[in-house]
Structure formats: C-alpha cells, structure tokens
Amino acid sequence: MVGTPLPRDLGRAWFQSGCTLSRKTSQRINEHQELQHRFTAPRRDRYAGHDDTAIMSSLRYGIRCLRAFPTSTTNQWPSLASSAQSKCSVAKRTLATTTPRQQDDNALMSALESIELESDGLITTYARPMPVSPSYFSRLPQFNDSFVHVQELARKYARLPSLHPSQVERIAWKTKDQYRLSIGEHVKARDYAACIALVKRLNQIHPDLMPEEVSAGLRPFKRDINIFLNRPKLIPVDKFGRSHGVGKRKSSVARAWLVEGTGEVLINGKPMNEAFGRVHDRESAIWGLKSTDRLDKYNVWALVGGGGSTGQAEALAMAIAKALVVHEPPLKTPLRRAGCITRDPRTVERKKPGHVKARKRPAWVKR
What we know:
CATH architecture of one domain: 2-Layer Sandwich
GO cellular component, one term: mitochondrial small ribosomal subunit
Shape: elongated
GO molecular function, one term: RNA binding
Oligomer: single chain
CATH class of one domain: Alpha Beta
Strand content: 5-15%
Pfam family, one: Ribosomal_S9
Largest sheet: 5 strands, mixed
Protein name: Small ribosomal subunit protein uS9m
Keywords: Ribonucleoprotein, Ribosomal protein
C-alpha cells in the first residue's frame, strides 16, 4: 500500500537514523500504540495463523472507524439534546421567605401528638375507607341493620314483664309499602312481617319498665300520625237546643236542624206532603226517625236543593240522622245499620260522545 507511512514506521525510521523525536510526535506514537494494543489484543485468537497483512488491514479499518465516530453520533435522548445546546446567561430572581418560629413549633408539636396517638392505638389509620355498617354490601343494608337491632333488643329484654295484647295501647305501624318508601329499599313481605312481629312483641313490655333503647328502636316502624288517637269532632247543641246535620245524595244537598218537639217536619218551609209528592220519598226522608222510634220526639226544619225528588229525600234522611246523633250519640250504631249514616257515592254516569246516553248507542241503519 503506497502512501504516508504509519507513525510506527516513522518512529522506527527516526530511531534507526539516530535522531530524536519531538515531544508532540512521541506522544502521538504512544497513543497509536495504545490503540493498536486495545484493538489487536481481543482478536489475537481470532487472527491466529494469519499473516501480518490481514492484521494490519483490520487495524487500519478500526482506526478509520474511530476517526469517524465523533462525527456520526447523534443525541438519543431529549435531555441530552437540551444539555448540548449553547449556554446563555438567563436573568434569575430569588425570593426568600421567613416563617415565624412559633408556627414551626406548633406544627411540630401537632405532628408529635398525632404520632403519639397513633403509637398508643387511639387513632387507627386504614389503607382505604371502611363501610359504615356490616350490612353495607348486602341487598338491604338499612333493613338488615334495623332487623338485627330489633332481634338484639328482643333477646336482651325477653324477661321483662309484658301486658296482654288487649291491654296494650293501639299504635299505627307502617305498612310494607310505607316502610319501603321511607328507607328506599324493596323489602320482601315475609321479612317485614317477621320484623313487625318482633316489634309488636317489644311493644307489649310494661310501660313503666319500657327501656329508652326499646322506644328508640321502635320509632322507625311507627307512623307519623297515630290514626287510633283521632277523635271525631262532635257538633254541639246550640243555645236554642238545635242540632245541625248535612247530607248528600247524587247532586242533591240537604241541611237539617233538629229540636225536641212533637214531630213536626218542614222542608223548605212546606209540609212534607207538599214537598214530596211520592209516598216512597216521604218514607225515605224520615227513615232515620222511624227506625229509632223518634218520630214524635223531635221537630225537623230542613233546606233541600239540587237534583230530583229521590236524591233530595235520601239526602234529607242522611242530614236528619247526623243531627239525631248529636242529641243521642248511642244511636249511631243503629242508624249506621239502617243505612242512614253512610254516604252513597253512586252518581249518574256521564254521557259519552257518539252515544245516545251513557251506554246506549244509535241504532244501526243498513240503508
């Protein structure tokens, strides 16, 4: 190979001629020898048995690669690329803050107190939030908690003296649908019946020995208003000795005033035979007095309006019966059995479009 001799050959020539090398040239020769030793040492076994020409050619190729290595490398990471950019001066501003020593001491003391509480076991730290109740993952968490609580109360106070069911004050308990609506869970009828049975058993405990815990446990099953405590409002007798009653039937309305007397009846200022022409209507109007044998004991003065004669007569019978109950409350049951107290809700059915009447349709004509 014709060209410039390698530094090794150049150094031999200088040494053979007896001349001395400069410091820079000798340093270059030493570096070249180190590179040659580094690349030829791992390959001695590989090139065993080959001539020196093959070894030197591989050495020259390695030196060429090393010379070209700095120019072919590229930055593989953005961080390296950013660090390789040219450095320029950037204006910086520093801000120093000071914290009062007292605040640092307070924070340190609170941290130490929390560590002491945790070490004593007073504060339990969980890796994740705990459920509110053991029934949290069940289908009916609220009902299950209430049912279990009622069972525990029944087991705990099973030996307390109780009253007979007939002696216990009547309480309006929630129905199944009302309880479902209150807790927002679809409770089965069988489960709710079993729970209510225990609730009623706890309610039979003697009132003087009733624990407060039991009263609080029964409260979710009670209605807001106890219907058994409702009492009907009685209309009193006025200063003239009159009692007032109102009755309705179909579209008729009647108001009657009763006073003790000889059995006179005035309807809209007219005697009964003038107010009602039919005998059946006359008997219907005073049926309440007749069924209780009070025809000759009270005088009746009534105002009737709306509807026909049948509706007015039956409305008047209801008004007279209610006024009679004010004078004599024990007559309420016999009058109810006679049908004078209960309101008859039946009315005339409305006419439909395309019909002759409520049900009747026009006759079909072929032609």
